[in-house]
Amino acid sequence: LKVPVFFKNEICTNLCYFITDTEGVLQLKERLQLLTLGIGGVGVVSAYVSYTPEIAASFSAGLIGSLVYLRMLGTSVDSLAGGTKAAAKGAAAQPRLLIPMVLVMMYNRWNAILVPEYGFMHLELIPMLVGFFTYKIAMFTQAIQESVPDVGNHEV
Predict the structure, then answer these.
(1) For helices 22-50 and 53-82, what crossing angle results, to 10°?
(2) Is 145 helix (H, G, I), strand (E, B) or coil?
(3) What angle do CA 153, 14, 72 make, to 5 degrees?
(4) Cα–Cα distance for residue pair 55/124, rounded to 1 Å
(5) What is the pLDDT of residue 154?
(6) For residue 9, what pLDDT is reported?
(7) Coil, strand, or helix at residue 43?
(8) Of 3, 24, 107, 120, which one's alpha carbon is 20 to 30 angstroms from that of 75?
(9) Residue 96 pLDDT > 50, yes or no?
(10) How far apart are CA 40 and CA 45, in angstroms?
(11) Boundaries of every domain in the chain
């Protein structure tokens, strides 16, 4: 039994992975989450060292949004594999698409209310969005990793 797993609107719109078991799907989701967390961690440290703590905090907020988005993407992939009616919903009914909007709204309200009244640090929008899109780098890395054959495993 092959379970199709589609990543719509991701790196390749026509890319389709065929994973033979649900354990493979779980391993793929776990690898993507760990890869996103690792790449994001490097980004947060780089932003802190190279720029300011405000930039690093903005990147961190985007990274958290990225991890939430990736978790919700995994849930929608699970619903595709199960063949439930939830898989038939259109793009408008997918709450994961609201994550970037929630980040922008959080940026707006944070800087408009919390910064002037309570003196919290100012957040920046561009590092927040860059932090959000770290999941794309993880997916691209995973796609390259799976498409390049292992060097040491040549069968004759």
Answers:
(1) 170
(2) helix
(3) 90
(4) 6
(5) 60
(6) 46
(7) helix
(8) 107
(9) yes
(10) 9
(11) 29-147
Q: Given a cut of 80, is residue 2 above it in pLDDT?
A: no
81 has pLDDT over 70: no
Does pTM top 0.85 for this prediction?
no
Tell me how far the alpha carbon of residue 37 is from its chain's centroid: 9
**pLDDT averaged over the chain?**
82
Q: Which two tokens stand for residue 29?
A: 């989701």
CB atoms within 10 A of CB 99: 20
Computed over its alpha carbons, how large is the radius of gyration of the chain? 18
Q: Residue 5: beta bridge partners?
A: 17
Residue 82 pLDDT class (50, 70, 90 cuts) = low
- Specify burial of residue 44 (Cβ count, 10 A radius: 0-12, 13-18, 19+): buried
Tokens 């699970």 correspond to: 78
